[in-house]
Specification:
By secondary structure, the protein is of the alpha/beta class. It folds into 2 domains: 54-287, Type I PLP-dependent aspartate aminotransferase-like (Major domain) (Aspartate Aminotransferase, domain 2); 291-445, Aspartate Aminotransferase, domain 1, CATH 3.90.1150. The chain has helices at residues 12-15, 17-31, 45-51, 73-90, 102-113, 139-142, 159-169, 187-197, 209-213, 247-252, 256-268, 274-287, 290-312, 339-348, 376-380, 385-405, 415-426, 430-445, and strands at residues 34-35, 62-63, 66-67, 94-96, 119-123, 145-149, 173-176, 200-204, 226-230, 241-245, 316-317, 326-330, 351-352, 354-356, 370-374. Helix 7 (159-169) runs parallel beside helix 8 (187-197) and helix 13 (290-312) runs parallel beside helix 16 (385-405). The structure holds D-serine.
Length: 454
């Protein structure tokens, strides 16, 4: 038998029903639930088409028209297209679309502009910053001297502290960007501080790049030297990342673009993932259409409506609201370490969010006292302010139900047993069941993919 009659041309449901059925279950989970993790989204069928394309077969070490292997004319074309679209969308002179994901992209920035042992500054992780911006267990604090900056009690970056630390420590690189920050980033002020001390200024806009492109958040382009972003959050593309170099960056260091390219390949990576690059090109093409602007603004409108509803129903939010796609609920009114109860209870109600530290969290990153939620995915699905009002009410109901009944034991040795009891009890909790019923009804009105075949 030829390959044509064997595995090569058969659909997954015939060749691997086991994996096919797991994928079907995941489509089902997404379709019947509200995805509210703010770093997630729902990509188009076109993005999935490109991601599942034959480009996954190809090796193309190097850059367009400078490859180490043959047969790269189409890989060149698609990567050049992704680069052109990225440059145009952000208004920058240079883009590298090859980083496998956000952490490798950030690693490439260190590799390009720092030497091991250099001082770097970034937002402290428990204050909402990212692992790769200098958190103690990450390469960024093991290979470099990390000086973290913090947020003020109102949740905003403490610019006075940043300036003081920068002048005292003379960092080589200052990061701006976060995984849990609900206010506009002070790009201009941070850019000035970096200039004052002669540091490179890198803005990691992974969470908000879609908002920036859509005009719903200020752009760092005039102030930053380097910009990194993942492509799968508000940008609504495949998992992946990009590194952009600005005019300001090139003025500061005319070799910066080359340094970045060399850091990605051959410095840190081998062959780029061309299937991912082709899907990034599709997502960037989608982001160039006028309705993406509408989408970006709707994400923020929805998030503000959700925040207002949560507060109306008695919950405390970090910074008392939001400017972007994300909300942090502060659960300390109920004691410390409540995030795990809320995350797991809402999982049972088909609402997915994540436990998260809040600034000055009295508990630990593993059992934090907050939860993080947001609106990129539900906005893609078509939900608007009216639905957000309802979701806020449902989330508040579940928070009150579980946080008033369950408290994380002070004695760590009791946590495992306590959680087992909690997990068994929430399965039959009537409040959670009622909210799940509401969620299922809402999801029916906003269907997801219609034509995925597995
Ligand atoms: N894991 C991402 C997030 O959820 O924000 C950050 O890398």
């Amino acid at each position: 038998m030829s390959n044509q009659e064997t595995f090569l041309n058969k659909p997954i449901k015939e060749t691997d029903p086991q994996v096919s059925s797991i994928i079907k279950k995941e489509i089902d989970r997404m379709s019947h639930g509200l995805e509210m993790i703010p770093s997630e989204n729902v990509v188009s069928l076109a993005v999935l088409n490109a991601l599942g394309s034959v480009f996954t077969n190809k090796y193309s070490e190097g850059y367009p028209r400078k490859r180490y292997y043959g047969g790269n004319e189409n890989a060149d074309e698609v990567e050049a297209l992704a680069i052109e679209r990225a440059k145009k969308l952000f208004g920058v002179p240079h883009a590298n679309v090859q980083p496998y994901s956000g952490s490798p992209a950030n690693m490439a920035v260190y590799f390009a502009v720092c030497n091991p042992g250099d001082t770097v500054m970034g937002q402290n992780l428990p204050d909402g910053g990212h692992l790769t911006h200098g958190w103690k267990v990450n390469f960024s604090a093991k290979f470099y001297k990390s000086v973290p900056y913090h947020v003020k009690p109102n949740g905003c970056i403490d610019i006075d502290e940043v300036r003081k630390l920068a002048h005292e420590n003379k960092p080589k690189l200052i990061w701006c960007g976060a995984t849990a920050y609900v206010r506009e980033f002070p790009f201009e002020e941070l850019g000035k501080i970096a200039d004052e001390v002669g540091a490179y200024f890198a803005a990691d806009v992974a969470h908000i790049s879609g908002l920036i492109i859509g005009g719903a958040h200020k752009s760092p382009v005039p102030y930053a030297d380097i910009i990194t972003t993942t492509t799968h959050k508000t940008l609504r593309g495949p998992r992946g990342a990009m590194i952009l170099v600005t005019e300001k960056g090139l003025k500061k260091d005319p070799e910066l673009a080359d340094k970045i390219d060399r850091a990605v390949f051959p410095g840190l990576q081998g062959g780029p993932h061309d299937h991912q690059t082709s899907a990034i090109a599709v997502a960037l093409g989608e982001a160039m259409k006028p309705d993406f602007k509408e989408y970006a603004h709707q994400i923020v409108k929805n998030c503000k409506a959700l925040a207002a509803s949560l507060m109306k129903h008695g919950l405390k939010l970090v910074s008392d609201g939001t400017d972007n796609h994300m909300i942090l609920i502060d659960l300390t009114a109920y004691g410390k370490g409540g995030g795990i109860f809320v995350q797991e209870a809402l999982d049972h109600a088909n609402i997915t969010l994540n436990k998260n530290t809040i600034p000055a969290d009295p508990s630990s990153p593993f059992y934090p006292s907050g939860v993080r939620l947001g609106t990129p995915a539900t906005t893609t699905r078509g939900l608007k302010e009216k639905e957000m009002e309802l979701i806020g009410e449902w989330v508040a109901k579940v928070v009150k139900e579980v946080c008033s009944k369950y408290k994380l034991p002070e004695d760590k040795t009791q946590i495992k047993e306590y959680l087992a009891k909690f997990r068994s009890e929430i399965k039959s909790n009537s409040t959670i069941a009622e909210v799940k019923g509401n969620v299922l009804e809402l999801c029916k009105k906003f269907p997801l993919y219609k034509t995925l075949v597995y």
